[in-house]
Structure to design on (108 residues):
């Protein structure tokens, strides 16, 4: 039997159009920055590209998708992340969002 997929951390996806190594298996171009919370991911992105953002960095930032990394090495957006966390039993009654979007605060 396969292990159940679950959320392991917050992650932001940035599509720079480049094929990188060591990326989530469902990402073909771009890169994913992981962290405890999404603001940690954004801070790491700022450290990578430099702050204040250049024109090129602002274009890259505009491709940002906030989501999560799963134990199966997949990047998922907030909506798919919610479904995975719910099915994996990672949410308790007080953290069940009506709009079906997952936030790292719902998990830990």
């Amino acid at each position: 039997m396969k292990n159940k997929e679950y959320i392991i951390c917050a992650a932001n996806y940035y599509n720079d159009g480049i094929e990188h190594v060591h990326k989530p298996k469902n990402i073909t171009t771009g890169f994913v920055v992981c962290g405890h919370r999404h603001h940690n991911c954004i801070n790491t992105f700022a450290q990578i590209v430099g702050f204040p953002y250049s024109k090129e960095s602002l274009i890259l930032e505009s491709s940002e998708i906030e989501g999560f990394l799963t134990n199966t090495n997949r990047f998922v957006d907030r909506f798919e992340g919610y479904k995975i966390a719910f099915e994996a039993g990672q949410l308790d009654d007080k953290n069940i969002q009506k709009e079906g979007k997952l936030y790292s605060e719902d998990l830990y």
